[in-house]
């Protein structure tokens, strides 16, 4: 019996590794699809989110009873979470229009650090000395990355700032989501939050009189690729893999997204990486990698913040707190 189990694991291992690579490649293409689109940032984000809603909706409707269980508090938190996610896409996508893929993606990798800071402030989560060193290493790395953009003009620095604001917004989205994820499954939560986030961007477009239609076929293709490949295939594949691998493994893999995006930007967009960006990027990624390896809140089934049994039963798997199919 033990021999059969070992054989099954050995057979599944290549499938898992290939799936992790496909998921990483899919999310890494997110920045490339945005760069290939000439549409305004809020339009790109709106259609990416709403197209993703349409793709997730058939699965969410199978759990329609979860919608009926939502309390007024849950609805408020879903709306608040959606607002933060909408702001994240607004600022982060615009950052890619202003600065390089390398700078924007390295800065957004700070998200786990900001989530930890928020958890300390809101949930009184304890932070170790090692965690503080990780944060300092990552922050220093981002400062070095930003310093590389000083000689490129104010536009690049503004892009770095937009990426930082977008990272703060997605961190608040993750923290808010922790309060409501015990009520609904991941698919239902994503449908609700994605719809609200898309609505935020829709209202922004209306307020700024940004055209909602009359975009080229290339732009509509990019909207669809962002939804199908980067959101559903990329992050959705990571969600599916949580059945067989730990949340830490997923976190480590997603950490490779900035690296993948930078390599793709070099190959497909001709964007070189200067020395300071490389040094700062390495420092930042080491800090975040070290943090994810040592911070217990990123381990599955954590005792301090155990995933809700009801949500796990509805989803058919154990999920780490706040993990979902959003992200960059």
Automatic annotation (TrEMBL):
The chain crosses the membrane at residues 12-34, 40-60, 72-93, 105-123, 130-151, 157-175, 187-208, 220-242, 249-268, 274-292. InterPro entries: EamA_dom, EmrE-like. One of its GO terms (cellular component) is membrane. Residues 17-145, 157-292 form the EamA domain. Gene3D superfamilies: 1.10.3730.20. Residues 299-328 are annotated as: Disordered. It is a multi-pass membrane protein. Residues 299-311 have a biased composition (Polar residues). The keyword Nucleotidyltransferase does not apply. It is found in: Endomembrane system. Pfam families: EamA. Keywords: Membrane, Transmembrane, Transmembrane helix. Belongs to the EamA transporter family. This is DMT family transporter. It comes from Alicyclobacillus acidoterrestris (strain ATCC 49025 / DSM 3922 / CIP 106132 / NCIMB 13137 / GD3B).
